[in-house]
Amino acid sequence: MKRISLRNGNAIPFISFFPNSHSASAISGKGKVGLNSKVKSLGDAVNLFNQMVRMKPLPSLVHFSKLFKNMISMKYYTAVLSLFREMQKLGIPINVFILTGVINSYCLMHRSDCAFSVLPIYLKNGIPFGIVTFTTLLRGIFAENKVKDAVELFKKLVREKICEPNEVMYATVMNGLSKRGHTDKTLSLLRLMEQGNTKPNIYIYTIVIDSLCKDRNCDVAITLLNEMKQRGIPPNVVTYNSIIDGLCRIGQWEKVKILLSEMVNHNIYPNVRSFNILTDGLCKEGKVEDAEEIMKHMVEKGVEPDIITYNAIMDGYCLRGQLDRARRIFNILIEKGIEPDIFSYNILINGYCKKKNFAKAMQLFCEISQKGSKPDIVTYNTILKGLFEVGRTGEAKQIYAEMLSAGTKPDIYIHVTLLNGYFNYGLVEEAMSLFNKLERKREYTDIAFYSVVINGLCKNGKLDEARAVFKKLSFIGLLPDVRTYTVMINGFCLEGLFDEAKDILRKMEDNGCSPNNVTYNVILQGFLRCNKIIEMTAFMKEMAGRGFSFDATTAEFLVNIVRENPSVLDMIPELHSKNKK
Fold first, then answer.
1. Fewer C-beta within 10 Å: the chain N or C terminus?
2. Among candidates 369, 457, 447, 377, which has minimal Cα distance to 417?
């Protein structure tokens, strides 16, 4: 989301400090930080604050505002709140800009609830609410994904005429809605804005166009682009990039060519982002050679490829399994003086892992640290998955231990990779030890996490333990989803307990969770595994009535059984009749 600067709207333009005041010149002694000095650390900020509050007379509030602004830019949010409380204790006057800085600090800490507690201080001090104040609050509420609360606040501001929204506030709300998939609401707000006093600008139209394209509604986005031009608002390169990106995602290359031609005709030239969108789109479709041609064209047009360009082409070659070509691109970018980033390494490491070339994968993994960088969570997960896939569980455990000692905090994906790896190789004790440890810490309350554990237990013949975990879900407030129910049904089918499996099937429907094609195929495979053809035939009728059909695994099961016993076909009327036709 774009940061709304305090320079916009009615905000104060933070001018440079004037050294000719008595208070400014008073701080220039050895070991002291002057008002004109650059604050480089938390210590500098606190020292400067302590010096400011001892000055006679006190510096202008502009100085305090600028100090808070600098601290916020360095992410010292908690310190800003502490110093603000100190100002209150000392009776130092405050203004709207200081209060907005405090609200912003709370919001950046994802504590919008605390940010609201600052509003009464405005009233107590007779400070009118500014539009920047509420824009900051709205941005903070969206950052916590509290879309409903943000929309309610915006409506209240408009309905009760607390403040008249400007372009920045509209953009903040529309950005918040679009980034969270509420494209229809974003478009509706644009239409409302078009009828009001504050008219949409290019930035606001681009937000809506980008949201439409991400929803694959490129035709509607192009219509809106034409509307915008008719209203006398010329699009810019960012607007065109959004539509080109959307068209590339759905493979509409002819429309991409038309738009590129239109851009040039309007003297809007593609930038590095435009070329990167084209390069990435071509690579995703396997047209990596075409992407390299685009890169050459970039250079001819005076646009230097960046790390994103090279990463896209490397990824394209890796997707095609052409690791030598991917490595060639990696070497070229180094020769060009471009430092590979963690994405560059992750792309190549993933490619080598998929090719089971762990020597080269580990060589690159070690190189990351040698270059003064650190592997990220994706790097570790890629290496762990690769090692587990070839049964190198001991090395996987070692990598996990190294990750912890390096201070990298594992996320749910790392732990799911570990659990799957342990279960796949029958290391149930290690898996359950990790699960119990995470559960005690309440690390994850995600149903997908519990589904992995239930599935692993079932596949290792630990049905009672799996059932215990499944039953526990309701006590910890988690609702099983279709995958959870399906893995539990599969567990019963693996043990030949079909009554229990069908009981779970009915329960999931009673609980409002509809079975899917996988659910029915799991049960069919269970019947086939136990040679229960008659029961399977009866169940197939229910399955067909719901519009589901055999998947590849079920079909393979059936083919193998028919190969051994052709008379099975006569026991399945549906298949028998199709065979006759």
1. C
2. 377
